[in-house]
Specification:
148 residues, alpha+beta, Tetrahydropterin Synthase, Chain A, five-stranded mixed beta sheet, tetrahydrobiopterin biosynthesis, EC 4.2.3.12, PTPS_His_AS
C-alpha cells in the first residue's frame, strides 16, 4: 500500500478558477430618476426607446483554498450549474429592462448587470468563494465587480 503524504503547506495554497460564459440580451439605458432630456444627454444613442443588444461575455472567478484531497478549489461542474441558474436562465435572450424584475427600477448598465450577477452568485456559492465578476459588454468595454 503506497503511503500518500500530503504536504501541510499545500493545504494553505489558494487558487483562482474562472469560468467564461456568453449570453445575449437587449436593454435601454434609461433612468426613471432623470427626465427624458437628461436621459438622452447622459446615455446618448444607448437611450434609444427601442433599446439595443449585446453579446455579453461574463467571467466568473472564484478564489479559495485548494482542497488537499480533491486538488480543487471547487468542482467546475457545480460552478457551471450555478452560472446556468444565475446568468443564463434569467438573462440570456432577454430584454433586461422588461424581463428581469431587478432592472425595473435599476438602470441596466453593465456595472449594474455585474452587481446583479454578483448578488445572485453569492446566494448559491459556498461562503466567501466568489472573487470577481468580469463582463465584456463589447471588445472594448469591460466591467469588473468584486462586491465592493
Amino acid at each position: 500500500m503506497a503511503d500518500v503524504s500530503v504536504n501541510d503547506s499545500a493545504a494553505e495554497r489558494v487558487g483562482y478558477i474562472t469560468r467564461v460564459q456568453s449570453f445575449s440580451a437587449c436593454h435601454r439605458l434609461h433612468s426613471i430618476h432623470l427626465s427624458d432630456e437628461e436621459n438622452k444627454r447622459v446615455y446618448g444613442k444607448c437611450n434609444n426607446p427601442n433599446g439595443h443588444g449585446h453579446n455579453y461575455k461574463v467571467e466568473v472567478t472564484v478564489r479559495g483554498k485548494i482542497d488537499r484531497l480533491t486538488g480543487m478549489v471547487m468542482n467546475l461542474t457545480d460552478l457551471k450549474k450555478y452560472i446556468e441558474d444565475v446568468i443564463m436562465t434569467p438573462l440570456d435572450h432577454k430584454n433586461l429592462d422588461k424581463d428581469v424584475p431587478y432592472f425595473a427600477s435599476v438602470v441596466s448598465t453593465t456595472e449594474n448587470v455585474a452587481v446583479y450577477i454578483w448578488d445572485n452568485m453569492v446566494k448559491v456559492l459556498p461562503t466567501n468563494l466568489l472573487y470577481e465578476i468580469k463582463i465584456h459588454e463589447t471588445d472594448k468595454n469591460i466591467v469588473v465587480y468584486r462586491g465592493e
